[in-house]
Amino acid sequence: MPWKPDYLTAEQAAEFVRAPGVDEEELATWCTAASRAIDKRCNRQFGKVDAPQVRTYRRPAAYDVVSGLWLLEVDDVQDVTGLTVGGVVLASSGATLLPDNAAADGKPYERLGFTDYPDGPVVVSAIWGWSAVPAGVVGACKLQVSRWASRRDSPYGVAGSPSDGSEMRLLARLDPDVHTALAGLSRRRRVG
């Protein structure tokens, strides 16, 4: 799976929206746009790099009184195979992957914890990303593509009828059901 993949294929989208007349090239564009909108909404992406990559983190670590650790936000990582911090294997580096129990909960590690303040930039090598795209992300992508596919036939972003009192403006934001599907998958802020 690549970094920042499309979470839905045009074929899957066509099947979901039940729109046999819609061009698959157009659906592929919507799939990409919906995938990037989900990334932006969640402040993360759900792909994975194929091999370990080195990344440098210059943002200062913040002290957490509860854990007694200096915390540094890093990109998501679920596969800790070959993970190094400052060129040293994780187990010998003195760093702790957080949150605790992330692997057991099917979540990625998002932070490194240090007992001493990490002076200078922290260089981490890891297989960044998610082992699999969460089902909620795929579902959210289907809903958003479906919304755009049906909007294609609506008059300039207005659905319903003013005379029947059912007029509704289609706003330039993600579908509310997409927000629900993505609950619990957002980060506070973007890393890097």
Distinctive features:
192 residues; alpha+beta; 4-stranded antiparallel β-sheet; 5 helices; 10 strands; 28% helix; elongated
Could you characterize what this model shows?
The chain is α+β, with helices and mostly antiparallel strands and 192 residues long. Helix content is 28%, strand content 24%. The protein is built from 5 helices and 10 strands, in the order ααβββββαβββαββα. It has helices at 10-17, 24-42, 90-93, 135-151, 176-181; strands at residues 53-57, 62-64, 69-77, 79-85, 88-89, 95-98, 109-114, 122-127, 158-159, 168-169. The protein has a 4-stranded antiparallel β-sheet with strand order 1-8-4-5. The protein has a 4-stranded antiparallel β-sheet with strand order 2-3-7-6. Strands 9-10 form a two-stranded antiparallel ribbon. Helix 1 (10-17) crosses helix 2 and helix 1 (10-17) packs across helix 4 (135-151). The longest helix is centred in the N-terminal third of the chain and has 19 residues, at 24-42. The chain is elongated.
Secondary structure: elements and pairs:
Blueprint: H1 10-17, H2 24-42, E1 53-57, E2 62-64, E3 69-77, E4 79-85, E5 88-89, H3 90-93, E6 95-98, E7 109-114, E8 122-127, H4 135-151, E9 158-159, E10 168-169, H5 176-181
Antiparallel strand pairs: 1-8, 2-3, 3-7, 4-5, 4-8, 6-7, 9-10
